[in-house]
Specification:
This protein is an alpha/beta fold. It has a domain at 439-569: GMP Synthetase, Chain A, domain 3 (2-Layer Sandwich). The strands form 5 sheets. The protein has a 9-stranded mixed sheet, sandwiched between helices. It has a 7-stranded mixed sheet with strand order 7-6-5-3-4-8-9. It is globular, with a radius of gyration of 24 Å. Bound molecules: adenosine-5'-diphosphate (ADP). Residues 188-189, 191, 235, 305-309, 327, 329-332, 360, 417-419, 431, 434, 529 line the site of adenosine-5'-diphosphate.
């Protein structure tokens, strides 16, 4: 082999921090607080990250030690994003919405050495603190008074600002890192079994951030202002902070103010061009924008994912508010962005174009995607053959952290995603379900995701989550849990509303997909990362506590064969 003669320059976060300090020094970080906004330049953040690195050294943090964070999206969290990995330790972002026992499990499993916690979140962590033997110190972040009160609730507690004030005001001499070294750790939310740790490397984060900058992905550049609503405690906030550090885009961080009203106010005044969040938050924002006078049109390039993005949501935002939302797909194990839906903009924005926008998109460069059948055979890209989606690439996990026996998730170098999908001839992946949510009716699969999308296109519907209901004859039938617009049930009886929804679905889905039953619920329960919690809905169905149930006239057929029979009889 004739070796190429190019430099072996390591892909590490140290380079990102250097860019924040130099080339991108004037970019701004805005953090929303209780008493207004704080602003800092990237140069300020880099200088404070240096002080933090000094503090970590004085606390005796070892190479590879896991440093927990329990925090909202704010400037201090960004400082930790940089200082911890650059000084050779591993940033372990803890999901603040997990139940206490899950948190305790994760912290023990990772053996966190220190935990940095927002003063506003100390209450959640304090009850566990005594059982967390590996944690040498809890370091409280917040302004003087609030932090003081919080420190009193924790054992072995220190104050972040005091640590920084005591650190030398001089550049930190960062170690030479290897690009394959671990940089960050994030646990999956563990909907089945215990949460599993995904251990990102400097290299994987660097390459993922580069790919985010591509025009056919997030398309972020120096001119952008990026509102990061997706939590920094979940999958590195989709890599947005790293991408901004690389390219010099401004960051706007909403801390704990995630309701539609403060977000809309933040958008109106800061004029972000990019925003990343899950569909449920965009739904809230759309409802708010429809009923209030606010201008959100600076968002020309928002990103949405985490669960399927309803086409109706994207169309409504674009038509009524000039906000453009593009869909991405990924998971904690894929850093997370792996596909992006950017159909060609040239030509008419017709039904075909919108169909492509509503898919999960094409694999990013360096990511390979395939679908396989139950025997592991690759299926054709014909847009109709569903199989399990598998992916591989330089920012896809190859193993879980300290988890022997999880090999079944990996298939000879491919990650088994647990998602069911089809891929069309242009390479667009379309997720039809999570394997565990798919509805098997009369030997056919019904896509709960597609059904939800169609139900959510009805103007009276705010949210819809479809689950399988056990059925004697057909195995399973779809039950559609719906949150209706306020006042709908006061105008019409539930049976009439259900009949309307069935009529609306009639021309949109196959007949055997039509739900036999609706449940008009006050709200769809959500997981710790804001997705529909179908496990909880199934539990309520099983124990008989699912409210507002209305059966519809059984559709004439519940499977393809059944339908053909019915047609033959007719
Ligand atoms: P967890 O697995 O802990 O719930 P993740 O954020 O890792 O959290 O979830 C990844 C899953 O979210 C994917 O496997 C997929 O089922 C779902 N998902 C993410 N983005 C999309 C999307 N655009 N459309 C449909 N499902 C999505």
């Amino acid at each position: 082999m004739l070796e190429g003669l190019m430099q072996d320059y390591p892909l590490t976060l140290t380079h990102m921090l250097e860019r924040m300090r130099t080339i991108n020094r004037d970019a701004v970080v805005v953090t929303l607080g209780e008493h207004g906004r704080t602003r800092a330049t990237f140069a300020d953040v880099a200088a404070r990250s240096d002080r933090l690195a000094h503090a970590l050294r004085s606390l005796g943090v070892a190479d590879g030690a896991r440093i927990g964070t329990f925090a909202w999206n704010n400037q201090r969290h960004l400082e930790l994003y940089m200082a911890v990995p650059c000084s050779g330790a591993v940033l372990h972002t803890l999901n603040i919405r997990l139940a206490g026992h899950q948190l305790a499990y994760i912290i023990r499993h990772a053996e966190d050495d220190l935990i940095f916690v927002d003063a506003s979140l100390v209450e959640l962590l304090a009850p566990l603190a005594q059982e967390l033997a590996s944690v040498r110190h809890f370091i409280v972040m917040g302004e003087e008074e609030q932090a003081r009160a919080a420190i009193a609730q924790l054992p072995r507690a220190l104050h972040y600002e005091e640590l920084l004030a005591a650190a030398p005001d001089e550049p930190f001499d960062y170690p030479q890192l290897a690009e394959r070294q671990a940089a960050a750790l994030c646990y999956t939310s563990g909907t089945t079994g215990n949460p599993k740790g995904v251990l990102y490397s400097h290299r994987s984060i660097s390459l993922h951030s580069m790919a985010s900058l591509l025009r056919d992905a997030l398309g972020m550049g120096r001119e952008d202002r990026v509102l990061v609503v997706v939590p920094m405690f979940h999958a590195n906030a989709w890599g947005m902070p790293h991408a901004a550090a690389l390219c010099g885009a401004d960051l706007i961080l909403p801390d704990r103010f995630l309701q539609a009203e403060p977000l809309a106010a933040l958008i109106e005044s800061e004029r972000p061009t990019i925003m990343g969040c899950v569909p449920t938050i965009f739904q809230d924002l759309l409802r708010y924008a429809d009923t209030h006078d606010c201008d959100l049109a600076s968002l020309a390039n928002a990103a949405c994912g985490g669960s399927a993005v309803p086409r109706a949501l994207m169309e409504a935002f674009e038509e009524r508010h000039g906000v453009r939302i593009f869909q991405a797909w990924g998971m904690t194990e894929t850093s997370p962005v792996a596909t992006y839906a950017r159909p060609a903009e040239a030509g008419a924005h017709d039904d075909r174009y919108w169909q492509a926008r509503a898919k999960q998109g094409r694999a990013l460069p360096w990511v390979e995607a395939r679908i396989v059948d139950a025997d592991g055979r690759a299926l054709p890209w014909d847009g109709t053959s569903p199989g399990e989606l598998e992916v591989r690439g330089p920012w896809i996990a190859r193993h879980y952290f300290r988890e022997e026996g999880s090999e079944e998730r990996f298939d000879q170098g491919w990650l088994r995603t647990g998602d069911v999908a089809v891929i069309d001839s242009e390479g667009f992946v379309q997720i039809t379900d999570r394997a565990k949510d798919v509805i098997k009716s009369g030997g056919e699969w019904i896509s709960s995701v597609e059904l939800e999308n169609e139900v959510m296109a009805h103007p009276d519907v705010i949210e819809a989550a479809v689950i399988a209901k056990p059925d004697e004859r057909y195995d399973e039938r779809p039950l559609c849990c719906v949150v209706l617009r306020a006042g709908v049930l006061a105008e019409r009886p539930p049976e009439a509303v259900a009949a309307d929804l069935v009529a609306h679905l009639q021309d949109r889905v196959a007949r055997w997909w039509l739900p036999d039953e609706f449940a008009f619920v006050a709200e769809v329960p959500k997981t710790s990362v804001g997705k529909f919690d179908k496990k909880e809905l199934r539990r309520r169905l099983q124990e008989g506590s699912l409210e507002g149930r209305v059966t519809t006239k059984r559709p004439p057929a519940a499977g393809r064969a059944d339908m053909q029979e019915a047609q033959a009889q007719a």
